[in-house]
Design brief:
By secondary structure, the chain is of the alpha/beta class. It has eleven helices and ten strands.
């Protein structure tokens, strides 16, 4: 049985963790398949966005507990790569959180650009409840996305967030009925895939870089180079001609 299932449709690549009997916990073999899948997606010019999800009942229940009991810096790094590989992707990424996302599984969700949750899914850091310190950049990602109070509430105070609560605090873009999740996620990602692939990649990098820009003039300067670059691309001329044609026919 493959531990990772892949599919490509409408310019959207879907990566599904597929070890439901173990609630899609991350192991070295699964991580290797995640890396291979992402390599294939990024090499395929027809892929404009990636959706990450899990075979029910869970999204990802974190790292294998047996592996954690014998953890070293090297072994933890292997597991981290399962979500870090996706977090590093230049492609737009979307987590379709269909069930529990726990520990490293929550890191997988946090590492995606956008999170859409089933109303029956749960985000549960659970590190402290297991007696282990958060890892893999968990507190950094959480704080940057939802702020220090939400991070404290979940990590220190053990608050578990369902879809509605995750949307309220800004961890999820939206919460949707469980039966609609994959359709909504696919349609959402497909809109990103309608844009020129390299343009989406450039715009995503700009948004990430803006975390280090603290004033408007510097933001204008940071956007100027890629904006000028985009005006020289063939897709801009093609789309501008279509728009001008529509205007002229009014």
């Amino acid at each position: 049985m493959s531990l990772v299932l892949t599919d490509i449709a409408d310019g959207v690549a879907t990566l599904t963790l597929n070890n439901p009997e173990e609630r899609n916990t991350m192991t070295q073999p699964m991580v290797e398949q995640i890396i291979a899948a992402m390599d294939r997606f990024e090499a395929d010019e027809n892929v404009g966005a990636v959706v990450v999800t899990g075979t029910p009942p869970a999204f990802c229940a974190g790292a294998n507990l047996g592996n954690l009991a014998e953890a070293t810096g090297e072994s933890l790094g292997v597991i981290y790569e399962g979500f870090l590989r996706i977090a590093r992707s230049p492609l737009p990424t979307l987590a379709a959180i269909n069930g529990a996302a726990v520990g490293a599984g929550m890191n997988l969700a946090l590492g995606c650009d956008v999170r859409i949750m089933s109303d029956r899914a749960k985000l549960d850091t659970r590190f402290l409840q297991l007696g282990i310190h958060p890892g893999g950049g968990h507190t950094w990602m959480f704080r940057r996305i939802a702020g220090p109070q939400a991070a404290m509430a979940a990590v220190i105070f053990g608050q578990v967030l369902d879809g509605e609560e995750a949307e309220r605090v800004g961890l999820a873009y939206k919460s949707v009925p469980a039966d609609d999740l994959l359709e909504v996620a696919h349609e959402f990602a497909a809109r990103a895939a309608t844009a020129p692939r390299q343009l989406s990649i450039e715009a995503k990098q700009t948004i990430l870089d803006m975390a280090d820009v603290d004033n408007h003039p510097d933001a204008v300067a940071r956007e100027l180079r890629p904006q000028l670059w985009s005006t020289k691309q063939p897709w801009f001329a093609e789309r501008l001609a279509v728009l001008q044609s529509k205007i002229s026919r009014r």
